[in-house]
Amino acid sequence: MENNTMNRRDFLRISALIGAGTLVAPTALATLPGRQRDDEVESSIPRRALGRTGVELPILSMGVMRADNPNLLRAAYNAGIFHFDTAHGYQNGRNEEMIGNFFQGKPRDSFFVGTKIKMNYPPRDNFEEELNERLSLSLRRLKMERVDVLYMHAFASVAEVVDERVVAAMRKIKDDGRARFIGFSTHAHKPEMLDAAAGSGVYDVALVSYNFKLGNVAETTLAIERAARAGIGIVAMKTMTGGREDAAGERKINAGACLKWAWQNEHVTTAIPGFTNFDELDECLAAGRSPGISADEERYLAGLREQEMMFCQRCEACVSRCPKRLPIPDIMRAYMYAYGYKQASLSRETLEELAINGDACAGCAGCTVKCPAGFDVARKIAAVTPVLNVPAELLT
Ligand code: SF4
Ligand code: SF4
């Protein structure tokens, strides 16, 4: 069937992205010019309490995930951002290393770093040993004796939130001081996971998707409130729904409007937009310094609410309709990374973790998936899987 292979249009799109350098590693390109902002005064970005931790954070933080220029970290830090979010797996460890190199020698109380470690679930026999090994490596890369928040990365179910072995291992890490606070991140859009966390009394922080496109936004908003009232600090991600306002990823979204929408919820402590250049940082800072959403911005977001965009609702309506039971929601996330974030390496890593190959839909007589959000799932799969054929060293 036509949709099973990358069609000419998709081939041209992915080739054009590679040719234009948007997907190619910076080592293959000219380096970005540095920018010094040391003379700038600290911003007036409002702060909010991070749950029961006793820490207050500016409502604007930095998701470092896709950044590879330490001067961008410097600009954010000098502008008053001091919470930086990374993960053990980002950029094969280079992301943590960049943060470690940047903060080495700076006062430890002048920054707040969260990292995330992905583990298999259900836990294997050597779960705790593996977790400790990964954390030791993260701490070495970060050049720190402890992180401020250690998250279990990408929990997908309530079972993971309350798993006794996971909880016991995380508690030990907090007790022996390798993490000040513990938490989990999730892409699953399941409010019940926040309720389970609130009931467990274990987690200090939860890192969750929160944006104006969420299909279950009312339920999520209420669960965030319940979790916050139970003392959990809420960190919001995916606030920009993929960073583009169209399904093809061609038009940049109004980042400020998206952030302001999330900040309207007083129970959201902070957001971690993944800006990758100085213009995007400036756009986020402008929003952080003037966080009230305007009527025009509300109208703009309302106009996008019914449009097909990049953001998969993870409703899973597609999975049972696919005879191959492909992990379509996660493949759609990989598509968003490639075409929304323009981050092909992250897209590739995601597909590799899923053990997806380049011809995932091969042999299927016709796509039986009907996505309520209007995604042409087979076409998106065909458009993203070719990234597996590009040598990893050529990708950002
Ligand atoms: S049906 Fe559509 S929105 Fe729902 S999980 Fe599948 S791709 Fe995402
Ligand atoms: S039904 Fe599944 S395998 Fe077949 S084309 Fe659709 S997504 Fe691919």
Describe, in plain words, how this protein is organized in 3D.
The structure is a single chain. With 396 residues, this protein is an alpha/beta fold. It is 38% helix and 12% strand. The protein contains 14 helices and 10 strands. The strands form 2 sheets. An 8-stranded parallel β-sheet has the order 3-4-5-6-7-8-9-10. The chain has a two-stranded antiparallel ribbon with strand order 1-2. Strand 8 (205-209), helix 8 and strand 9 form a beta-alpha-beta unit. Helix 3 packs across helix 4 (127-142) and helix 12 (328-340) crosses helix 14 (377-384). The site of one iron/sulfur cluster (SF4) has 15 residues, from helix 12.
Short description:
The protein is α/β, with parallel strands linked by helices and 396 residues long. The chain contains 14 helices and 10 strands.
Number of domains: 2
| CATH topology call of the largest domain | TIM Barrel
Q: List the bound ligands.
A: iron/sulfur cluster
The CATH homology group name of the largest domain: NADP-dependent oxidoreductase domain
**N-to-C series of helices and strands:** HEEEHEHEHEHHEHEHEHEHHHHH
CATH architecture designation of the largest domain: Alpha-Beta Barrel
User: How much strand content do the residues show?
Assistant: 5-15%
